[in-house]
Specification:
The structure is a homohexamer. By secondary structure, chain A is α+β, with helices and mostly antiparallel strands. Chain A has helices at about 75-80, 85-100, 105, 125-145, 175-180, 210-235; strands at about 15-20, 25-30, 35-45, 60-65, 110-120, 160-165, 170-175, 185-190, 195-205. Chain A has a single domain, classed as GHMP Kinase, N-terminal domain (Ribosomal Protein S5, domain 2, 2-Layer Sandwich), CATH 3.30.230.70. Chain A contains six helices and nine strands; from the N terminus they run ββββαααβαββαββα. Chain A is globular.
């Protein structure tokens, strides 16, 4: 049985509070069970040097964890003076997947910064950040369209992300930290509202997995992502 | 008149939500008007090297701002690779003032980390961090006493902090950002519940100030701090 | 047609020169077409702090590129003072996948460092590094067993890695840089000699992909990896 | 009694050697007892980015300590690769207080860099740096006026700084290191020649202090600063 | 007798493989006994800021060692986040000596980057880097002249470098690591093809040396450099 | 003619003020013409890790320049966060040459730190640092012997250093900055009181030099160093 009594194909309760940070162009506090992430979107009227004069925009993400988002206090990355490898990996993933559903030309020469700051961590912080980042992005785009900065909606599809894995030999949806840390196989999946894949990252943590395992996990992820997309679509 | 219609000796509305971060030993979300800070306290069973074998504890603070806590997105300090001068100054202030009301010997050979993370900034973030940090500290000490880690209460007095300043020639209590940025004189005061000073930091931003100005500002601060202490004492 | 005239399911020529760096415990110069990577394995008789007293070993990897491994000279990471996000991501991938085929307890309290330094880059440097890192690892383990440092072979299975992708609508095996940079979908696959998955990383670069696309790419990767494993098995 | 036999309201001997560094636009070696600081002023014909096109100048300060300015050799900050929190705090203080007596518009689009390097430290290095920095600044301004770079004198008032504190229950002026390290209350005061306050920084090191204590310390500081200003006015 | 049986005035076998890195403008794998260095030359069409608008070019060098170029694995400089003192010293030496034989005005406003990466180290890596860097530089200049980028040959003379030293009281040519680490006197000499000195760096490692010792070592170095220049001149 | 009217074989006026920094174990302010360096020696009762349990001591040096030691203000290395290549090179040189005249076993398990801080720079700062560092070292050793920390004098010989060079075709002794910056050949020589070489660093800045040039420069340096040694021997 799962630590919190869920069925293997059941998500943790989702709670989404939009407009959590008034200063931001778009923002959300997203909660999946005990995992809580503040996501903001910030529009900047310039693009990074490598996009200069290409008449298109950019979306980039940064990810952080408050020192006491974890059961044992973590060292602050600003104090250590280095952004760690895991952080780099996660922020590249968030930026890349969000860019996949945005028409960067319609964005114009603008950068949208997505900041995902984990205030409590209980597994699945990177997938919650993608989902929350998407919601904040949509809010910021709406605001920019209302202000006439952007004329055509650059967002091509909705997206959401979830983790799946094999724990004690069972394929399970939406792993909490206790499951994640003992998973035999661990996978993060990002999909569009239209049911296609944006990103698959599957890792054999304890033993290699078969194609059959892979297909089971993909089905679980599809189910979970469909449910999250439904929640997003029903927000105000 | 003040930007938000307050009287010169009036605080902004205070809201304090304790136990905001479940993982922490003590935590609070403190709000003064639009300024919002998450404060956590974390107990670690060791002391920094310079206190080795002195049979006493330590309290240290770290302060950060989420990138979009401000109207214009700030660079993340972990990204710049350096903790800035202002951050250093603030975290030294928080740690020093909290240590002033704690009997470090009663704490035993432990460090309490106070993390203050600003999620929205509208002036007074350092004083809100001291007040919030104190509340989180008290919660953590209670928890440690309940667990039998600490036998005698090491907290000697309550403390709270507020900013005051001279704006457009008028002494004012609890400056919001719009006032702070045009203040002629700017002062941060930390006092105990018993009415004594822990820290006075007064700066002539535009013109030097007289002893009379100083005394007016101290009176305003005393009034504000008394009110905040009353709110803290009435929490659950 | 592919830039180098290959068929879509055809690997680039592989060349493997073992014992390329005499000082190392195991080493190889691996070439896939114009991609060339020096991989070394170094045995150190201690483990990282987090494994202290757990009676098991560790495998960790570092990855670098010579400044002129690329058509345009790159900034040296030692000069920039920071290991970049892409580098972090790759070295975490190499370490994780190699650990997946090693019984760390049989290794004893030792760390094996795998260093992968790209001397020429033409796509697929991370998968070549995994394959080359595996060969260097095997050499180092042999040497340690001959020296009596290790008594039982800790390597549980062989592994190899390859990239696949969709380019101009066609699923292709082993992308060179010209293909990789215009791929619609890009995937790195790591598999064992026994045909199971260690890692799947698939990314929609230009458009989301379907489950059918995924299955085609996995088949291509399986074919390529089987061929590489055969080459490895036939070395000396 | 005080360690060096002074009365509680007595300054240590002051020695000021102007033009100590020939290369600088203004320079001084200032000594207060055993505390010795080299201060230089350097005029640069540009302003920091945030002042661009505002038709005014800037004054900024940097502070350092030679490794053997202290009884036990300190680590060099260039070696540690980080400017510490205390250094940041002090250099911000020096810059801010000097700017308070300068009309930045009369300075024109120039930056004056004040460098304060402690060659021997025996308490009061930050206040000696402010006083010495002011003298170097005046020299540099004179030189710039003689050269016709600046037409109207931008310096509005003289300034000096001193530390005061409560030691063994007694309010004392100009603490040496032995006193500073055991002070119950510690205060740094910066005042103008016209008797007004530029900065007050008071800290309860051992116990909170009353308003009465504060007023005693302010009177001591006023007396000391008046004496220092007199010395400055009598130079050459 | 010498560890490898050479006579005191005998070089180790030299092997030079030009065009080792296809991507580079010029490249070489140079081997002196067991010391092996990859040198590349990269032409960039701009100059460093300090040469702006001076109508001349620049040559600069960077030096690195693969982590397992040494018998015991070294920490990667990118990982430590700092380029060490020895590396700085060597890359300044390489750049300075190569510039001494180049007419920077004939180069035009271009920078040539010389990268020297040691893949195996057995003494003399800095002198091998100078010799190899020179060969790569010549190749890059030829390529630039063929492409019409440069019209007149900027290279004024050939250069080569070698180490000499006093070991067990005997002056010896081309020290291997075992000799270098016990040398009483250690000297690196860079000379032109026309027999003049570019750089002499002699260090008393164990005891001070006389002018007579110096002259013996210079003669040995002259002999060795003449032989290396002959090898270079005979390359295809 | 030389900028300051000296003859080609004439030193600039030397001034040596011992015990300049009271806190240090040994200290000196050394001046050669307008070049002024504060050198201190600090004894620490431990050795670096690589000398652990070898029953011998170590001497290491650090070198810095005050920001306004130069005609145009330099960036502070602590601010840039990096110790530059030139600084690294110089401090390695100072440490190496001082170690050459000290019997490290007689020093016992101690480190002597030599800090050389340039307060005004007019050429020859590295050679002045070696000479000044030697004087500070001698003072510190005397103090340690008086205190009974060291029983036998570990200093085997005196040492001094000077720069020489070819300027406008003429060999000259003790170059000032104006000469150094236009020198055709530039050489730094370190010798013992007994007339032997510790270090020779000669660089062709504009054209390669002959053995005859070398011998002329060595003679000039010998003359200068003999004179400096005489000054040192005549101090109190």
């Amino acid at each position: 049985m799962r630590p919190d009594g869920r069925k293997n194909d059941e998500l943790r309760p989702i709670k989404i509070e939009k407009n959590f940070i008034k200063n931001a162009d778009g923002s959300v506090l997203i909660e999946l069970g005990n995992t809580r992430v503040i996501c903001t979107a910030s529009i900047e009227n310039k693009v990074p040097p490598f996009l200069k004069d290409q008449k298109k925009g950019w979306i980039t993400a940064e990810y952080g964890m408050l020192p006491r988002s974890t059961p044992v206090r973590m060292l602050r990355e600003s104090t250590s003076g280095r952004v760690g490898g895991r952080t780099h990996e996660i922020q590249r993933l968030i930026g890349r997947t969000l860019r996949a559903v945005v028409d960067l030309e319609k964005l114009g020469e603008r950068t949208i910064w997505i900041d995902c700051d984990v205030i409590e961590a209980d597994g699945g912080t990177r997938t919650a950040s993608i989902t929350g980042g998407y919601i904040a992005l949509v809010e910021a785009v709406k605001k920019a369209m209302n202000a006439g900065m952007i004329t055509e909606n650059p967002i091509k599809d909705s997206i959401a992300a979830i983790s799946v894995g094999i724990v004690l030999g069972e394929p399970r949806l939406d792993l909490c930290y206790a499951e994640d840390s003992q998973a035999e196989v661990d996978m993060n999946i990002v999909m569009t509202g239209s049911g296609k894949f944006i990103e698959i990252q599957g890792t054999a943590e304890i033993y290699p997995f078969s194609k059959e395992n892979l297909l089971q996990l993909l089905s679980l992820a599809e189910k979970g992502i469909r449910e999250i997309i439904r929640v997003i679509n029903n927000l105000d």
